[in-house]
Write a structure and sequence with these properties.
The chain is an alpha+beta fold. Helix content is 52%, strand content 14%.
Length: 425
């Protein structure tokens, strides 16, 4: 694997774009992309799959696995820089699909930090990007992780209901954060936390901003760890903020930019995307790629099983009911991948999501993963329902993709508003 020589500031400049299309859309991968795909697949096959069941049963963060990923350059700033620097926008979803083909829980442990990095990259100043993104990952010798904290006990799909507050203390040039975050990937054990908080409750989601909580900051503590249905190797927990004081320059984008935005909103003018949604819009196609990886793994396993499993004197794939189901599984997976690739290319090349193409990709991929993994269990019959066969775990892992980073219902709402131009409730 080659490594990127770009600095965090250069990554920020390149990611911002200048409004022009930098790469033609093509479904033919370059040799570099094919090499990276093969490299990621090898790690997934040789490291993730053999360890998937063990860490799913442990329900603990797999530090040794993330360490191995860091040692080969899969986890860390240089790897992410290379994946993001691809002008086609396809490398990041390609890598994610392969890793989550290996295992979703371990994959989320490796790529969970990326959501915080995307928030910093998308909303931070070049100086903030240069300071904080490397600290999200650490080094191969001293691995760190990061957490993006948006959801709250009463604010999941309804991001306008965020109650965590951030108040500015002019005397000390500090922000004081109070509140509780829920369902935070890497929450509490992260080196860096990115927190979405309200600076003006009267403005709803338009009064939100994102803040970096530096390592070791007092008042930022882990709450209850969540015991989950799936992706159990990934750490999920509440995060409590109790008079958590952070330096003024930890507001992503800076106070001057925030004040200008709030002033526009109070004047009745349109504001740019609020803090949480800006991050989700950038990450949804990649999340879709993760779901596709799970679906593909379940499809391939059930296809091999159907060829080998003999009932009534012949392989079960010779029954149309099985064969046709597998045909549809493959078709749905490929259709979902095309939507993800289109949205990834559009996002990287600053092509507006006029019809909510990012939400389309995540909606289709999430529902495909849930349906395909369920069909895989059905093809395996009783075996598929046991933990001795991996499709049971894949089905548990897949379900979250109908829920997090915008439920299927929210994605449909976003799409419906985009295609109609109406404020659908």
């Amino acid at each position: 694997m080659s490594t990127s020589t770009e600095t965090p500031e250069e990554i920020a400049e390149n990611a911002a774009g200048d409004g022009t299309i930098k790469a033609e859309f093509t479904m033919e991968l370059t040799q570099d992309q094919l090499d990276l795909q093969e490299w990621a697949h090898g790690f997934a096959e040789n490291v993730l799959r053999p360890n998937a069941h063990e860490w799913d049963e442990k329900e603990e963060f797999p530090w040794p696995i993330v360490q191995e990923a860091a040692e080969i350059g899969l986890y860390g700033f240089e790897g992410i820089a290379q994946f993001f620097s691809d002008p086609s926008g396809l490398t990041l979803p390609i890598i994610n699909e392969e890793i989550f083909w290996g295992d979703a829980g371990l994959g989320m442990s490796i790529f969970g930090t990326t959501l915080a990095a995307v928030a910093i990259l998308g909303q931070g100043t070049p100086e903030q990007i240069g300071e904080w993104i490397p600290q999200c990952f650490g080094t191969p010798d001293d691995v760190k992780i990061a957490a993006f904290c948006s959801s709250e006990p009463d604010a999941g799909s309804d991001v306008s209901a965020v109650r965590t507050t951030a108040k500015y203390d002019e005397a000390t040039d500090e922000w004081i954060l109070n509140g509780q975050k829920a369902w935070a990937t890497n929450g509490g054990i992260a080196n860096v936390h990115v927190i979405v908080a309200s600076v003006d409750r009267e403005l709803g989601s338009r009064g939100h901003a994102a803040f970096v909580i530096p390592p070791g900051t007092k008042g930022c503590e882990q709450g209850a760890k969540v015991k989950k249905h799936g992706i159990r190797a990934s750490h999920t927990a509440d995060v409590h903020l109790d008079d958590c004081r952070i330096p003024g320059n930890c507001l992503l984008g800076g106070k001057e930019k925030l004040d200008e935005r709030l002033a526009r909103v109070k004047e009745g003018k349109k504001a740019k995307s609020q803090a949480a949604m800006a991050t989700f819009e950038a990450s949804r196609p990649t999340v879709g790629a993760q779901a596709i990886g799970i679906a593909r793994a379940a499809y391939e396993y059930s296809l091999d099983y159907a060829k080998e499993r003999v009932q009534f004197g012949r392989p079960i794939i010779e029954n149309q009911a099985i064969a046709f189901t597998l045909a549809r599984m493959k078709t749905e997976i490929d259709a979902a991948r095309l939507l993800v690739w289109r949205a990834s290319w559009m996002g990287r090349n600053q092509v507006p999501f006029e019809n909510a193409e990012g939400s389309m990709s995540k909606l289709k991929a999430g529902e495909t993963a849930t349906w395909v993994t369920e069909r895989a269990i059905q093809i395996l019959g009783g075996n598929g329902y046991t933990r001795e066969y991996p499709v049971e775990r894949m089905h548990r892992d897949a379900k979250i993709y109908d829920i997090f980073e915008g439920t299927s219902e929210i994605q449909q709402l976003v799409i419906a508003r985009a295609i109609s131009g109406m404020k659908i409730q």
